[in-house]
Amino acid sequence: MRTHSPFLLTVPALIVLTVFMLVPLGFGVAYSFLTAGPYGGAELPLTLEPYRKILFERDFDESLYFTTTYISIIARSVILAGAAALLCAVLGFPVAWFITCRSPKWQGILIFVVTLPFWVNSLVRTYCWVLLLRDQGLINNGLQELGLTSAPLGLMYNDGATLLGLVYNFLPFMILPVYAALERLDPRLIEAAHDLYASRVSVFRRIIVPLAAPGMMAGSLMVFAPALGYFLVPDLLGGGKSLMIGNLIQMAFTSSRDWPFGSALSTVVTAGVMAFIVVSALRGKKRNAT
Amino acid sequence: MSPNTNPATRASSKVVGLQNAPGAEPSIADPIIQLSDVTLQFGEFKALQGVNLAINPGEFFTLLGPSGCGKTSLLRLIAGFQSPTSGNIELDGKDVTAVPPHRRPINTVFQNYALFPHMTVAQNVRFGLEMLGWDGGAADARVPEVLSLVGMNGFATRRPDALSGGQQQRVALARALAPKPRVLLLDEPMSALDLKLRKETQNELKRLHREAGITFILVTHDQEEALTLSDRIAVLRWGEIKQVGSPEEIYCSPANSYVADFIGEANLIRTQLLGVSGDGMVMVRPEDISLANAGESGRISGIVADVRFLGSGIEFVVRTADGELLRARSAGAGRLPEFRSLIGADVRLTWPESAQQTLGG
Questions:
Q1: Suppose B185 and one of A121, A233, B89, B108 were both cysteines; which one would form an S-S bond, judging by CB atoms 3.0 to 4.6 Å apart?
Q2: Start and end of every ABC transporter domain (chain B) (predicted)?
């Protein structure tokens, strides 16, 4: 009986994962091969049309022609999510290092502070950025009051605003795993490197960064994957000119009532992210093996 | 190996004294490490107070004491990981008190070895050479050279986590010796090894010290290790040096009762009990004490409280008139039943004049 109990304890989690994750995912994949119903939903027959729509548009005479509309939105999403992951790494690493160097008591307080934004709804937080960035917002008004600018700078509704929103939203997801990696780093390794004639720069480059790499890798995934499918930030800060896949999927399910197309886009994003995770995990394993 | 053969030409100038300027060769009599009036304080706690110490070139020097005596702090000061609160540290006659560890030609073997887990054995050993700016060819030649010195040549491409504790320790030694430091610091390097491996490693260290020809400074709490390996020992207690001397001096003529008690086993007897003049203690080692023959008066008398079998001999525990327990050892394990019958009997103990040491405080 004792040997069975550990497995039994995992059953609730397995049920939750199966019912609430795999089943909807299966529905999503299944819907992506169906035909769109006239008032939303999906019906038979089975078709590849939703996937075809990502690359080709149908002309009036039903002939297909290649379109880059959706491809460019997917590419923008990948680039913005990648840039967000990179910026989060650059900004998050020093923060994580700073926290690691504090006393245990302060580490607890600072980690709490890093997670503090999670206590406020991200919709509210993103609207706060709207208040800051819009033409009559705090920043533009402030700059004009100070006489530094004469007209509002177009701070919103561009890729930069979207990127800012993504970095702001996902920075904690980078700081926490990097902190976890740095906190495990044995300070005696740093002493040993100094002892072996390494300057502070060399210690950082040769010891700290390589040993924090797994944390940065995990952090990058935790930023990149949700950022890729995020729709709140591009919707509020990016506007119509800076759409991301998330907006496309949302629109497919709501205004254009094309559930199969939304499902096909979701499936492509999910498959892409999973492929990325598998490849980086395999590369990590290979690096450890040699 | 003289430090002048060091192929580190470019970067070594930043490292104090790694390469001596011609004509500035220090004479043999000058200490390589000199600590003057060194004090280290953490808040109210004095980790080291007023330490003066001179370590000679080529010496195997040991800092010996119980945990918390300040021996590791002293090692960290010499390595440069810590700065003294007051006092100064000289290396080859140059003040290095404010010189950071990466500018001191001193390498350390850490207690937990602190091997870089993301590098292979060869990369670990090569690290210091790269940091010193050795050219590739010289470093390529040096790595297998030191690895074979510690018998780890076949392990160059392994990662530290694929090595046993003893192997990791050898790699740590190779890594610290590779840059040809002037001084090698060893922070309890054998504390994580089992007894048999520790004995082997002691011999190994002795050999490496001979072959490298540089100064070794060992920190240990193991007095046997200190006595076996060292040319000289400093015994520490509560941040103070209680005695510095050769193993024989420390063992045979301890300067005070603390050293006598810490090194080997000692009987400490108040002088009044022996009718010796002066107010202090007399130290006699258990192996020097024997039962007085019939008719002999002996130096002190007492009641046999216990007779213990030690394997190599027999130990008597004798309670003196003022309740002190003295231990006396004798060979002749075969006479155990005869000696056992002495429990509870009055005995007189004696020892040769030369075996007794009068100690201050």
A1: B108
A2: 33-263
